[in-house]
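Bumping my old thread because nobody answered last time. Still need a sequence for this structure:
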């Protein structure tokens, strides 16, 4: 699928990216190759393929649930603009 230069300019405008004349041909070629690859991937028959979380069916290694950092709550709340009963107070944004 070959993209035209005007399509590249439109994509650039939508993405808020300036595309110069010298870049348009190169981008058209690169985007066309990407779209061709997507078409090839869509053509693959995946009807009977089960989705996998990992290609080797391994489970995640788990670690012990241990505290690894010192409690800095007091220090963080000390620099907060407003705190009450250990909670941060923020302005109401929904009426």
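Sorry it took so long. Here it is:
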């Amino acid at each position: 699928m070959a993209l035209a230069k005007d399509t590249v300019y439109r994509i650039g405008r939508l993405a808020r990216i300036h595309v110069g004349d010298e870049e348009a041909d190169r981008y058209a070629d690169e985007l066309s190759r990407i779209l061709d690859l997507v078409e090839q991937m869509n053509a693959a028959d995946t009807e009977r393929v089960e989705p996998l979380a990992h290609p080797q069916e391994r489970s995640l290694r788990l670690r012990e649930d241990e505290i690894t950092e010192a409690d800095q709550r007091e220090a963080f709340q000390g620099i907060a603009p407003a705190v009450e009963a250990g909670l941060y107070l923020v302005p109401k944004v929904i009426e």
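Residues 1 and 39 are 9 Å apart (CA to CA). Let me know if any region looks off to you.
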